[in-house]
């Protein structure tokens, strides 16, 4: 009697989600809006500094955007679970298009009256943009799986979505700087507005999706928000992954101090500073493309913990380095390892969160990540003032290692996670 031949293993297709026409529209739209926002950030920064000549005014840009975004985050998550996601995205992009056109008008003869108010109109536009982007995150996060449907493709979809975002993050500042340098501020904001319009067009071509059916009785807004928060804080895997990312960014963020390293430690000037700033994103893009071909399924939790530990070790090494190419390599590796952690975290959130709760869970994720970026910059600056630049970076990387060790000890479900 012959033994039947084993069934052939299903072959992994790294381009599986890109074969879906609407997902191609989705990543194209995400690339355009990310590129636009990166260009806008660079040009607004240069424009405000050119007006004020005050470095503190640059910090107020991030504050003007972060405060409204974090303030509306929980409500935005609730809205993403009760209003069709495409409708939210189209509305938000319309507001962002208005903001881009307003910044463009500020630089022309039309904006002469506004310019009499100095930088106040610019900060006001950025504040409105922050409100809109607060609603954008949960809507986009919960809309994407509705385009994919098959849970087996979530990891592939997140990988390509992350690759798109990282690529635009690398290209955006460079394009913004070049257009500003050779075409001026008006042309730069014109390119920004055109990209937002293009993103709006791509999203408009995607068919709308009905809201997922909710389990249980319909809740009012207060109870709905409580349910979302309760779900996150009672799910050890999601909570530990969010906390791990938050504290790693909070203590391990050396990016805010890069100008000091470039000027006083590595002595590489503004050109070298640009290279250092791009290094983490280059590493992230490279790893995201690799993971499209070699997705992580087994021992995902352990790999996430090891990658965050590696991120902390890279930050320590960067703080101690006095050689440009070693510093560049360590920052590149930090971005590479952070990409693994980000993709695993996004995949597990999508996998373990019910469809009808993804907006609320995404809003909690945005609060964790968004607040840690802003507070992490403050922590890095304060630690550098108290300890010195190099000791503060080494301290931050060391704290990241301690947090990984504590998480691995306490969060056994995350440690044993596989997809």
Task: Please supply descriptive tags for the structure shown above.
single chain, 419 residues, mainly alpha, MFS_trans_sf, transmembrane helix
Summarize the structure.
This protein has 419 residues and is mainly α. The chain is built from 17 helices and no strands. The two termini are 37 Å apart.
Task: Note down, in words, how this protein is organized.
By secondary structure, this protein is an all-alpha fold. It is built from 17 helices and no strands. The chain has helices at residues 21-52, 55-71, 73-82, 85-106, 112-115, 120-148, 154-183, 185-204, 221-234, 236-252, 258-265, 269-293, 300-320, 324-352, 358-387, 389-410, 412-415. The model has no long low-confidence stretch (mean pLDDT 82). This is MFS transporter. It is a multi-pass membrane protein. It is found in: Cell membrane.
What structural category arises from helix and sheet content? Answer: mainly alpha
Bulk shape: globular
Task: Give the percentage of residues in beta strands.
Answer: under 5%
Number of strands: 0
Radius of gyration: 22 Å
Instruction: Specify the helix fraction band.
Output: over 70%
Task: Spell out the blueprint of helices and strands.
Blueprint: H1 21-52, H2 55-71, H3 73-82, H4 85-106, H5 112-115, H6 120-148, H7 154-183, H8 185-204, H9 221-234, H10 236-252, H11 258-265, H12 269-293, H13 300-320, H14 324-352, H15 358-387, H16 389-410, H17 412-415
Helix pairs in contact: 1-2, 1-6, 1-7, 1-8, 2-6, 2-15, 3-6, 3-15, 4-6, 4-8, 6-15, 7-8, 7-12, 7-14, 10-13, 10-14, 10-15, 10-16, 11-12, 12-14, 13-14, 13-16, 15-16
């Amino acid at each position: 009697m012959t033994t039947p031949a084993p069934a052939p293993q299903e072959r992994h297709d790294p381009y599986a989600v890109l074969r879906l026409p609407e997902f191609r529209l989705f990543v194209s739209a995400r690339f355009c809006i990310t590129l636009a926002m990166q260009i806008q950030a660079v040009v607004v920064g240069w424009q405000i500094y050119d007006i004020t000549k005050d470095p503190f005014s640059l910090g107020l840009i991030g504050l003007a955007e972060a405060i409204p975004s974090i303030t509306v985050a929980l409500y935005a998550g609730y809205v993403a679970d009760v209003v069709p996601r495409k409708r939210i995205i189209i509305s938000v992009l319309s507001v962002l298009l208005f903001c881009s056109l307003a910044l463009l008008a500020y630089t022309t003869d039309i904006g002469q009256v506004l310019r009499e108010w100095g930088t106040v109109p610019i900060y006001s536009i950025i504040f409105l943009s922050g409100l809109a982007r607060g609603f954008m995150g949960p809507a986009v996060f919960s809309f994407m799986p509705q385009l994919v449907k098959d849970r087996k493709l979530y990891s592939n979809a997140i990988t390509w979505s992350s690759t798109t975002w990282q690529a635009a993050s690398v290209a955006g500042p460079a394009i913004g700087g070049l257009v500003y340098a050779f075409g001026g501020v008006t042309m730069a904001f014109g390119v920004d507005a055109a990209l937002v319009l293009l993103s709006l067009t791509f999203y408009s071509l995607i068919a709308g999706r009905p809201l997922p059916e909710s389990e249980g009785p319909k809740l009012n807004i207060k109870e709905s928000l409580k349910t979302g928060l309760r779900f996150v804080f009672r799910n050890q895997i999601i909570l530990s992954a969010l906390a791990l990312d938050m504290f790693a960014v909070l203590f391990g963020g050396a990016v805010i101090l890069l100008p000091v390293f470039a000027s006083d430690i590595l002595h590489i000037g503004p050109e070298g500073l640009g290279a250092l700033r791009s290094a983490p994103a280059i590493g992230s893009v490279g790893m995201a493309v690799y993971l499209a071909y070699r997705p992580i399924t087994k021992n995902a939790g352990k790999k996430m913990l090891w990658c965050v530990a590696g991120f902390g070790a890279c930050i320590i090494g960067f703080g101690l380095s006095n050689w440009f190419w070693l510093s560049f390599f360590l920052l590149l590796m930090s971005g590479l390892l952070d990409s693994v952690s980000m993709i695993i975290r996004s995949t597990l959130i999508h996998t373990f969160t019910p469809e009808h709760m993804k907006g609320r869970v995404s809003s909690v994720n945005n609060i964790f990540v968004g607040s840690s970026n802003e507070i992490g910059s403050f922590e890095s600056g304060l630690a550098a003032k108290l300890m010195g630049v190099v000791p503060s970076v080494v301290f931050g990387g060391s704290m990241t290692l301690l947090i990984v060790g504590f998480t691995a000890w306490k969060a056994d479900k995350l440690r044993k996670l596989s997809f």
